[in-house]
Structure formats: C-alpha cells, structure tokens
Amino acid sequence: MKVLAVSGGAQGIGRAVAEHFARADYAVSVIDPAVDAGEDLVRRMRGEGRKVIHVTGDVANKSDVTGWMARTEAEIGCPDVLVANAGINRRAPALELATSDFDRVLAVNLRGAFLCAQAAAQAMARRKRGGAIVTIASTRAFMSEPDTEAYAASKGGIVALTHALALSLGPMGIRVNCVSPGWIETRDWQFGGRAAQPVHTERDRSQHPVGRVGRPEDIAQACFYLAEQAEFVTGQNLIVDGGMTVKMIYEE
C-alpha cells in the first residue's frame, strides 16, 4: 500500500486530497492544527476501511513536522507522495499590515511547505525508491487583489521553491511539482459549524470558461495526476482555475 502525507489535510482542499488518494488505496497521514476536524476525518475514513492517522501540529515548526514524519513512517510507512497544502491568510490594507502577520503567513505557507518537503524527501531518500512531492501555490502568485501582499508573496515563493526543489531532489528520483488553484469553493468542506452551503451567482460562474466555480476535488485530481501519472513531469506549475486567468474581464 502506498502512503500519502498531506499537510492541512483535515478540511478544505487538503481533506479532498486525503479522501481522493484514500479511494485509490493509499494510506493517509495528515498534519493539521484543527483537532476536531482531524479526529472527524480519521473517524469517517476508518469507518470506510481506510488506513489514516492525524497528527496535531504547526507546519511552521520544524519539530512538529519532523515528529509528524517520524510517526508516519512508524505507523503506516514512508510517504510515497507528499502534498504540501497547509496555508493561511492574513488580509489587511498594505499600509497597515502588521509585520507579525506578514511573517506568520510566510512561516506557515512558505517555510511550512519547505519543511514538509524536506522531511518527506529525507524519508524518501532513506528508502531509495524515489517519490513525488506536490506543493499547493495559487493563481495569486501571478495575479492579485488589493491587500493580499502576504498571501501573494508566500504563494509566489512556493512556485519558485518548487522548481528549485525539483532540481535538488531529481537525482534522488523525487519529482516536485506545483498546483496553483484559482477560485476553489471550500466552505462546504469545512468541519462542523465552520461549514456553510455555498451560493454562486451567474456572474461568478460566467467568469470561468468551464462555467462553474472550482471544487476541492478538482485540485485533488490534479495532485493525483502529478503524483501517479506524470512520470516525465517535474519542476512545473499546473494552473487549475477553470480557465479564469486566461479570460479578459472588463468592468461593466
């Protein structure tokens, strides 16, 4: 049985990734700070006969990440695939954004992605069978709204980190690629009281050439493709946005 390690895997896109790989007979290890959501994920997936563990931790903290990877190896095996998904946002006017908030976003989103990739690659290198790493960036690495400086900087950094890691880890048989989601609706993929039923307008849908807003499963499918089917692909960024970033939109 292959093993998936996914950060931020208890809710939203990460949860969709965990469930998608589990349906493909992967054992799944999740690190996520949300205890309730993580426990719920484990309960549901084990109820379906899946092999899954949840570790409570902060990906910005190296000891949390190394502890997660050690527990993953001990309980379900060395990861064949890492999806570095964990991410946060702190939105504020650019002239008022606190340095501490800027630093925290970069610590979780960018340093966290590196720490997870480093720990997973160390495990993969010890096993000497290679593997695949998929980072989650965003179309915000290439286009922005006002007052998103910290998030945009972190996601741009992930894209650059990805191609650097692809070159460093390639000789070990480890492929590293990136998925950049566009507008992905995650409100109905949250836990308990955090969940909400999304409502989209015709304008929301028409902004996307495919005619709808994205779903977490769309990103899970892209991650699975890069992990399982793209043997000759590394160092690349796959934009999954329903065509939104190639459509010119004029204000009416």
Quick synopsis:
With 252 residues, the chain is of the alpha/beta class. It is built from 7 helices and 7 strands; from the N terminus they run E-H-E-H-E-H-E-H-E-H-E-H-H-E. The chain has helices at 12-23, 35-47, 62-75, 99-127, 149-169, 202-206, 216-229; strands at 3-7, 27-31, 52-55, 81-84, 131-136, 174-181, 237-240.
Task: Describe this structure as you would to a colleague.
Helices cover 43% and strands 14% of the residues. The model has no long low-confidence stretch (mean pLDDT 93). The chain has 252 residues and is α/β, with parallel strands linked by helices. It has a seven-stranded parallel β-sheet with strand order 3-2-1-4-5-6-7, sandwiched between helices. The longest helix has 29 residues, at 99-127. The radius of gyration is 18 Å and the shape is globular. The protein has a single domain (3-246), classed as Rossmann fold (3-Layer(aba) Sandwich). Helix 1 links the parallel strand 1 (3-7) and strand 2. It has helices spanning 12-23, 35-47, 62-75, 99-127, 149-169, 202-206, 216-229; strands spanning 3-7, 27-31, 52-55, 81-84, 131-136, 174-181, 237-240.
